[in-house]
Amino acid sequence: MKFILVISFIAVGLMACSPQNQQDVKQQKSAEEAEQSTQVIFECERDEAITVRFFTDSERAVMTRNNEDIELKQERAASGFLYSNGPNSIRGKGDDLTLHIGRMAPINCRAM
């Protein structure tokens, strides 16, 4: 009887570690994040586009530029919004956004 119980626990543990189950968990997490965020696509100077996901459950945003995700924390702004992680920041109001990357010249963008 103990043997059957031990085998049952091992089987359940292995099922939880299966690649399919891990894929299901990742998909569920992505779906939950999508529900808790607002995604905006911005068209920028130099024919560049960036995507920003503003998370409603936390004070953060994730900017995607050149297929790279950059996480930013919300900062205080006199008006509009400001998110930064030090060298990278986005500042905006309404449909307009200014992207600052290190010491590069600011890039102006507009929501599509």
Automatic annotation (TrEMBL):
Domain C-type lysozyme inhibitor: start-end pairs: 42-106
Origin superkingdom: Bacteria
Name of this chain's protein: C-type lysozyme inhibitor domain-containing protein
Keyword list, A-Z: Lipoprotein, Membrane, Palmitate, Signal
InterPro entries cross-referenced by the UniProt entry: MliC, MliC_sf
Keyword Cytoplasm: no
Record carries keyword Nucleotide-binding: no
